[in-house]
Amino acid sequence: MKKIALATTALFMLSAGAASAADLAARPYTKAPVPVAAVYNWTGFYIGADVGYGWGRSTGIGANAAGLLPAPYSLDPSGVIGGGFIGGNYQINNVVLGIEADWQAADLNQSGTFANTIGTMYTYRTKVSDYGSVRGRLGLAFDRWMVFGTAGAAWGHWETSYALSGFPPFVTASADSKVGWTAGAGIEYAFAPNWLGRVEYRYTDLGTASFVNLATNSSELGNKVTINDVRFGIAYKFGGGAPVVAKY
Question: Of 44, 115, 121, 139, which sees the most CB atoms within 10 A?
């Protein structure tokens, strides 16, 4: 009887072990899923305002109406800028595509005295009154932070004035840039669901303008204006937007 009991027990244990092994083989090991945190969603339209400081370069050649007796010059107008912007973003993973338009009122000005080819002294003064742009944007988002680059078309209004030194009034030509461009980069931070702050650097080329004034026997052979600026802005984004799942 004792031998029969031992044999029965051994057989039961072997059967249980085989069943457990088969069960484990039928359920392969899998890692537990790693939770992925939701991050800020940059998709949406926004409107904002900015203020900053600009410094530029105004170069050209003044002459008489026939284009003779040239007096080349180079000025560095600078001053405060401020304006607004409007745009929209669309986020794909951590890539943010966007388009934006802006306009800046400006007070960039400088004057200087330069000589023509026979030594006659002329005073030149350039004042940039406003400029704007329409641009594409490409950003990389890291939750509430985004770095971006931007480039597109630009236009602006400035005037360069001319006078014999000591003999005002100035002869003024208002210039309207027909073709220009701008490019820059910046960083944005979403400090609240609907509020964005930014710092941005931009370089803007407003093109070249010329004129001939027979009444004053004067001409401009090509006044070129470029601007560097740094801006600080704040924007309101419409719609908080559902958070996106980070995949980076």
Answer: 139
12 — pLDDT class (breaks 50, 70, 90): very low
Q: Parallel, antiparallel, or unpaired for β 44-63 and 167-176?
A: unpaired
Q: What is the distance between the alpha carbons of residues 220 and 128, in angstroms, rounded to a whole number?
A: 17
Q: What angle do CA 136, 85, 238 make, to 5 degrees?
A: 90
Token digits of residue 150: 């931007």
- Domain chopping of the chain, boundaries: 42-245
- Does the structural domain 42-245 have CATH classification 2.40.160.20? yes
- Per-residue model confidence as pLDDT tens digits over 220-247: 999 999 999 999 999 999 975 556 555 5
